[in-house]
């Protein structure tokens, strides 16, 4: 069940939007921070998840949620945090980038690996665009 308040729609190319078209206001905390003690923020670096996630994006992670196969998540791998799509396939875990220039990483027993949490939201600073 979706309990989020409906946001006002912003059609690109539509002119003359007035306050009459704003139905209500919404708190981003209310929408994306469901469990405050389990919510963490990371800043994206690198191009492996472009164009889905670009450098500078703020990633919102909720560690209280399970990371299901196919979800984009923060993982800890051999001393660094990575943002990748986590694929569980035939008993293996594969980390996949969104950018096809980056190869998959198949997790092995020798790797220091931990699934940290799923990304539940991305915020992008648009001031420079």
Could you provide a short overview of the structure?
The protein has one helix and seven strands. A seven-stranded antiparallel sheet has the order 1-2-7-3-4-5-6, with no helix packed on it.
Per-chain topology:
Elements: H1 28-32, E1 39-43, E2 58-62, E3 72-77, E4 80-89, E5 92-96, E6 105-106, E7 113-123
Q: Alpha-carbon distance between the termini?
A: 35 Å
Task: Count every beta strand, where a strand is a DSSP E run of 2 or more residues.
Answer: 7
Number of helices: 1
Order of adjacent strands in the largest pleated sheet: 1-2-7-3-4-5-6
User: Which consecutive residue ranges, at least 5 long each, have pLDDT under 50?
Assistant: none
β-strand amount:
25-35%
Q: Note the run of SSEs as H and E.
A: HEEEEEEE
- Structural classification: mainly beta
Largest sheet: 7 strands, antiparallel
Give your account of this protein's structure.
The two termini are 35 Å apart. The protein has one helix at 28-32; strands spanning 39-43, 58-62, 72-77, 80-89, 92-96, 105-106, 113-123. The chain is 4% helix and 34% strand. By secondary structure, it is mainly beta. Strand 5 (92-96) and strand 6 form a beta hairpin.
Attribute tags:
single chain, 1 helix, 129 residues, 4% helix, 7-stranded antiparallel β-sheet, mainly beta
